[in-house]
Amino acid sequence: MRSIIDFVTFRWLRPRRPEVAVLRLAGVIGGFGPLRSGMSLASTEALIERAFAVPHLSAVALVINSPGGSPAQSALIAKRVRDLAHEKEVPVLAFCEDVAASGGYWLACAADEIFVQPTSIVGSIGVITSGFGFTEAMEKLGVERRVYTAGEHKSTLDPFSPENADDVVRLKALQEDLHDVFKKTVQDRRGQRLKAAEDVLFSGEFWSGRKAVELGLADSEGDLRQVARDRFGKRVRLRRIQGPKRLLRRLGLGRGNAADSLSASTEGLLDPADWAAGMLSAVEERAIWSRFGL
């Protein structure tokens, strides 16, 4: 039988539990063709805003597992996080899982503190462009390439034409510009915590999480639950911010398997060129992950 104290004790009289919004940022960053899509500001902005709208918020935790991708989308997502962190005056903590490299590390730099696992892969602060050349294959097949442009540089790095030295020079200049922006972002966010020379940190190399802490690219080793309990107390509540698709999958209302989903979502919608583009995008995405042994 309940005591009278139980009946007159209202919830609003109890101490509020600290709230930490947990936002997962996983996958390749950017668009990857008609059959696949990666993280972008468009796909994450609503979730970011929901994370910062949690009542009685003590912090926002970014759980990052990304090998990178689009520099522009990396910068846009990170900026939105920083804008809301400043507006709401809420600290942001990043927790790196398997990999936070290239654009994935750019996202981690949106946090005030970066935590890693000793086995995480962190870094790859650089810019890469990759592609294929099909000129010899076309010659063997007897295929003639015909390109018509208005603007002398419109067909730069056409994979069906021989490599042009001037195109490579222009590409290198573009990569240097993007690399400078990336480096400045890391320097602005990490500041005096960086403990190695620029030619080491910004060479495009990547390291284990333990080594990243030594270099100052991360602050310490730690997992989300333990850090949250240590920082905000044992009563801290981790409020996971999820999109509708992930919620449906957890409830068992999603598609049975990836093949069925692909078939159902694309039947009658994609022509052969779209299928080819989708296959190439899948290869490209796989190549991005495989650079880190994943």
Question: Layout of helices and strands, plus pairs?
Answer:
Elements: H1 4-8, E1 19-26, H2 41-52, E2 57-66, H3 71-88, E3 92-101, H4 103-108, E4 113-116, E5 121-123, H5 135-141, H6 165-190, H7 198-201, E6 206-208, H8 209-215, E7 220-221, H9 224-232, E8 237-241, H10 244-250, H11 258-266, H12 272-290
Parallel strand pairs: 1-2, 1-8, 2-3, 3-4, 3-5, 4-7
Antiparallel strand pairs: 5-6
What does this structure look like?
The protein has 294 residues and is an alpha/beta fold. The chain has a single domain, classed as 2-enoyl-CoA Hydratase, Chain A, domain 1, CATH 3.90.226. The protein is 44% helix and 15% strand. It contains 12 helices and 8 strands. The chain has helices at residues 4-8, 41-52, 71-88, 103-108, 135-141, 165-190, 198-201, 209-215, 224-232, 244-250, 258-266, 272-290; strands spanning 19-26, 57-66, 92-101, 113-116, 121-123, 206-208, 220-221, 237-241. Strands 1, 2, 3, 4, 5, 6, 7 and 8 form an 8-stranded mixed β-sheet that branches. Helix 2 links the parallel strand 1 and strand 2 (57-66). It is elongated, with a radius of gyration of 23 Å.
